[in-house]
Amino acid sequence: MKFLRNTSTDPHFNMSFDEYCLQRLPSDDCVFYLWQNRPSVIIGHNQDARREVNLEYLQTHGIVLARRVTGGGAVYHDQQNLNYSIVGRKPSIDVIVDALRSLGVPAELTGRNDIFVEGRKVSGFARSVYHQRELIHGTLMYDVDIDALTRALDTPESKLNRKGVASVRSRVANLKDYLPGMEDIQQFRERLHALLACGDREIFLDPEAYELIEARRIEKFAAPEWIYGAIRTPDPESP
């Protein structure tokens, strides 16, 4: 696939980057990019942050809260988590699963929006549709801080709390455990990128595109009204 590069670790910028690529990339060909966030929790388009996130823990630990344009549940990111986005007509999550298998990871799709390895979740992903174009984006837990993850998402009303935080470690896994020859997340990023690109070319956004992305970051994605606002009506084109 053709690819973009996104080196930002600002969650609000990266949510804006996803929206721009979904709505404004000039080609319908599938394009991918890999990216990382500094410690943050990303909630789904229709979620209520107060119900799904331990806001006090986020505040005391300097963890950023952001809302994405896709549905699904709240997820914790840190810089030991690698994210992927694929945009275009009919993008497929199979390319991520196939790439992991090429690296020796016995990955498989399980349920609607998860990738598992030996019965443990290593990735969750979500989708959004805009004018017959689709965005698929998700996480790849390389060496994520599981304690921070559980505490950031531990609220009285959350699914995590109801299932019991103590069980989280038995239900999720870091890919580092399945990639003993990998030196660090940067090498993992480089290897995964090479497999997904498979020799295809890089495409570039012009300066005006970055100006629009930054403007939307400020006016929408970093705005409290977007992050903490009432539960939203789903986009009629979104699954």
Number of E-type strands = 10
Helix content: 25-40%
Order of helices and strands: EHEEHHEEEHEEEEHHHHHH
- Mean pLDDT level: 91
Distance between the termini: 24 Å
**Strand order, largest beta sheet:** 1-2-6-10-9-8-7
- Approximately what portion of the residues adopt beta-strand conformation? 15-25%
Describe the secondary structure blueprint for this structure.
Elements: E1 2-3, H1 11-24, E2 31-35, E3 40-43, H2 49-52, H3 55-60, E4 64-67, E5 75-77, E6 81-88, H4 94-102, E7 107-110, E8 114-117, E9 120-130, E10 133-141, H5 146-152, H6 159-163, H7 168-171, H8 185-197, H9 207-221, H10 224-228
Parallel strand pairs: 1-2, 3-4
Antiparallel strand pairs: 2-6, 3-5, 6-10, 7-8, 8-9, 9-10
Helix pairs in contact: 1-9
Any overview of this molecule?
The protein is of the alpha+beta class. The protein has one domain (about 1-230): Bira Bifunctional Protein, Domain 2 (BirA Bifunctional Protein, domain 2, 2-Layer Sandwich). The protein is about 35% helix and about 25% strand. It contains 10 helices and 10 strands. It has helices at about 10-25, 50, 55-60, 95-100, 145-150, 160-165, 170, 185-195, 205-220, 225-230; strands spanning about 1-5, 30-35, 40-45, 65, 75, 80-90, 105-110, 115, 120-130, 135-140. A hairpin with a 3-residue loop joins β7 and β8 (about 115). The longest helix has 15 residues, at about 205-220. The model is unreliable at about 230-239 (pLDDT under 50).
Features:
7-stranded mixed sheet; BirA Bifunctional Protein, domain 2; 10 helices; alpha+beta; disordered C terminus; 3-stranded mixed sheet; 23% strand; 239 residues; single chain
